[in-house]
Design a protein that fits this description.
Elements lengths: L4 E3 L10 H5 L1 H8 L17 E6 L9 H13 L4 E7 L25 H11 L3 E7 L14 H5 L10 E3 L5 E5 L4 H17 L4 E5 L12 H11 L10 H25 L4 E7 L15 H4 L5 H7 L4 E6 L6 H16 L5 E2 L2 E2 L6 H11 L11 E4 L7 H4 L2 E3 L16 H10 L2 E4 L6 E4 L13 H4 L4 E6 L11 E6 L7 E4 L5 E7 L2 E7 L5 E6 L4 E4 L8
Parallel strand pairs: 2-3, 2-12, 3-4, 4-7, 7-8, 8-9, 9-10, 9-11, 16-22
Antiparallel strand pairs: 1-13, 5-6, 14-15, 16-19, 17-18, 17-20, 20-21
Helix pairs in contact: 3-4, 6-8
C-alpha cells in the first residue's frame, strides 16, 4: 500500500564484581527463578490501556482550551489515558519545587497545565501519566541560573560535574547515571511531582545512554575503576564497562520504583523503551539488540525484576516499508512474550504512517502472540502528529538521498485519525485523490486494566542506606536470608550513595547481613509495604 512513498523522520520525541557483570545475562533469572517469561492473562476483552503520548513541543495541554480539546479528542477516540510530557529538558510544565518553569511562549502565564489536565481528565474518566524526559536536560531553560545544567554541567568542578561525556570528551547535554548525585537529583524530581499531584502514573523517557561510547563522566569512571581495581579509561566495547553502565541505568529505575512505592504505592511506573533495529526472534537475541547493546537499556530485565509496571516499547516503524514492518512484528511478538507478570503496551509511531496503516499496526498489536500471550494496551505517538499528513514531510522512494517532495500540511487529518480509531471512517488521500475506508480498532470504550500487584499486593519491599563503610559504601554486597523458611535468599548491592532496595519479597522475617562484616539486622516484610532498614550508624563495616 503506497509503497512508492517513504516518510522523513521529523519527530522530536524519541521520545559489582567483574565476574558478576560478565554473567549478568543469567543474573536476573538466577535471582528470580520463579518469574517465568510469560504474560499476565489477557484482559483485552474488557480492559486495555489506550493512551496518547502528548508531547510538549506541540500544542496539546498548554492552555485551558487545549486541555479541553485534548480530553474531547481522547474521548471520541475511545482512549482512556493521556501520557503528557511535563518535563522536556530539566524544566517543568507543572509547579515544581526543584526545576524552573518551562519557557514556552504558548504556555499561558500562571497556568498549571498538569493540574488542569488531571482535573478535567479524571472528571472524564481518563488516566493521566506524567511523561518526563529523564537524563537529557539541555534546552530552552538551561541558561536559567536555577537550572541543573548551570550548577552541574560540564564546566562544574570536581564532583559537582554531573554531565555525561562521550569517549572523546564531548558533552551531550545528558546527566550521567554513573554519577550518584545525578541519580539522586533525578529521582528527587520524580518524587517531588508525585508528592504534589494526583497522577495515575509517571513515565521515564530517555532513561538510557546515547550510545555505546557515552558515559565517561569522571566520577563514573573513578567509581568503576575503584570497584574493578583498574586504572585508566575503559574502552566503550569493554564488556565489563558496558554492563557496569547498564547497571547504573537499572539502579536509577529501581531507586525510583522503590521510593515511589513508599510514597504512593498505587501510582504506576512506566518507561518509554527503545525498540530500534531488528526485533529479537529468540530469547538470546535480546543481548544483541540496540536497546541492550548500544544504549545500555535493559528494559526486559526491568520487567523481570518488576521495577517498572508497564513498558511501552517505541515501535516507530513504517508499515509500508517491508523491512520496518517485519521489525515491528518481531518487536511486538517479543513484547507480548516477555512481560514477567508486569505489562507491556505497544507504542506505534502513527506519525510515520498513513491512517489505514497505523490502524493495521494497532490491530496486530492487540492480537495474541504465537504463544498465546497478549500485551495490555497501546500508546500512540503522537496526539499532535497522528499520521503522515500532519507529520508533513514525505519523500519519494529510492533511498535517503532523494530530494524531498513538496507536501501540504493537513491539520484536519488529526481529526480523521481520532475518528478512525473508534468508528468506520473514510478519507481522501490529498496526493492521489484516492478514497480510503477504514474500520475501527477501538470501537467501544474500555477501562484501563487492573494492575493486581498494585491493587492487591502479595509481596513487600525493603530499602535502606549504609553510611559508615571503609573505604566507601559504594557497591557493598548484602545478603537477605529468610528466617522462617518462607521466601528466597537474595543478594543485594548498594549504589553509589550506599542505598539499597529490593522488591517482590515474600512476606515474612528475614536476616539482612552486610557481607564481610558483622553488621546484620532482623527485619519483617509485609505485603504492600516498603520496610525501611536502619542500620546502627555508630558501627563501621
Amino acid at each position: 500500500m503506497r509503497k512508492s512513498k517513504t516518510v522523513f523522520l521529523s519527530s522530536l520525541f524519541s521520545i559489582g564484581l567483574a565476574i558478576s557483570f560478565l554473567l549478568t545475562p543469567q543474573w536476573l533469572s538466577n535471582l528470580f527463578p520463579d518469574r517465568a517469561a510469560i504474560a499476565v492473562p489477557p484482559q483485552v476483552q474488557t480492559s486495555e490501556f489506550r493512551g496518547f503520548w502528548v508531547d510538549a513541543f506541540n500544542p496539546g495541554f498548554k492552555t485551558p482550551q487545549e486541555v479541553t480539546k485534548l480530553i474531547a479528542d481522547a474521548k471520541r477516540a475511545n482512549a482512556n489515558a493521556i501520557v503528557a510530557q511535563v518535563r522536556r529538558r530539566g524544566d517543568a510544565f507543572y509547579a515544581s519545587s526543584i526545576e524552573p518553569r518551562a519557557k514556552d511562549p504558548n504556555l499561558a502565564a500562571g497556568f498549571d497545565p498538569l493540574q488542569d489536565l488531571i482535573a478535567k481528565a479524571h472528571a472524564a474518566g481518563l488516566e493521566v501519566h506524567a511523561w518526563m524526559v529523564t537524563l537529557p536536560v539541555t534546552g530552552s531553560t538551561s541558561n536559567d541560573r536555577s537550572h541543573v545544567w548551570q550548577k552541574h554541567g560540564p564546566n562544574a568542578p570536581g564532583r559537582d560535574n554531573w554531565a555525561m561525556f562521550t569517549y572523546d570528551g564531548q558533552s551531550q547535554g545528558y546527566l550521567d547515571p554513573g554519577h550518584p548525585d545525578a541519580v539522586d537529583y533525578t529521582v528527587s524530581v520524580y518524587l517531588d511531582l508525585l508528592k504534589r499531584y494526583d497522577v495515575d502514573g509517571v513515565q521515564l523517557d530517555y532513561v538510557r545512554y546515547g550510545g555505546p561510547d557515552w558515559g565517561y563522566n569522571p566520577t563514573a569512571i573513578a567509581r568503576f575503576n575503584q570497584q574493578m581495581k583498574r586504572t585508566g579509561r575503559p574502552s566503550p566495547s569493554d564488556r565489563v564497562w558496558m554492563q557496569w553502565r547498564r547497571d547504573q541505568v537499572t539502579n536509577l529505575v529501581r531507586k525510583l520504583y522503590v521510593q515511589s512505592l513508599a510514597i504512593k504505592p498505587q501510582v504506576k511506573i512506566s518507561a518509554a523503551t527503545i525498540a530500534w533495529g531488528s526485533g529479537p526472534k529468540k530469547d538470546e537475541d535480546w543481548y544483541q539488540t540496540q536497546p541492550y547493546k548500544e544504549v545500555l537499556q535493559d528494559w526486559r530485565g526491568w520487567l523481570e525484576e518488576g521495577i517498572i509496571d508497564i513498558a511501552m516499547p517505541m515501535t516507530y516503524q513504517r508499515e509500508y516499508n517491508a523491512r520496518q514492518k517485519q521489525a515491528y512484528d518481531d518487536w511486538i511478538e517479543f513484547a507480548k512474550n516477555h512481560q514477567y507478570n508486569r505489562y507491556t503496551a505497544i507504542g506505534p509511531g502513527n506519525y510515520l504512517n498513513y491512517i489505514e496503516d497505523a490502524l493495521a499496526q494497532i490491530r496486530r498489536a492487540g492480537q495474541p502472540s504465537a504463544k498465546g500471550n497478549y500485551t495490555h494496551g497501546i500508546a500512540l505517538y503522537s496526539y499532535a502528529s497522528s499520521n503522515v499528513y500532519t507529520n508533513g514531510d514525505l519523500r519519494s522512494s529510492g533511498g535517503g538521498s532523494v530530494p524531498r517532495q513538496p507536501w501540504k500540511y493537513v491539520l484536519q487529518s488529526n481529526d480523521w485519525f481520532y475518528n478512525a480509531l473508534s468508528k468506520p471512517s473514510k478519507y481522501v488521500d490529498v496526493a492521489t485523490g484516492k478514497t480510503y475506508e477504514t474500520q475501527p480498532v477501538w470501537a467501544n470504550p474500555v477501562a484501563v486494566p487492573d494492575f493486581p500487584w498494585k491493587s492487591h499486593p502479595t509481596t513487600g519491599a525493603i530499602a535502606g542506606t549504609l553510611r559508615m563503610c571503609s573505604p566507601s559504601c559504594d557497591s557493598v554486597t548484602l545478603t537477605l536470608q529468610p528466617i522462617d523458611g518462607v521466601g528466597q535468599r537474595r543478594t543485594i548491592r548498594t549504589d553509589g550513595k550506599g542505598w539499597f532496595g529490593a522488591i517482590a519479597l515474600t512476606p515474612g522475617t528475614y536476616q539482612l547481613k552486610v557481607d564481610g562484616g558483622k553488621l546484620e539486622q532482623t527485619i519483617n516484610v509485609s505485603a504492600g509495604q516498603v520496610t525501611n532498614v536502619n542500620f546502627d550508624n555508630r558501627q563501621s563495616y
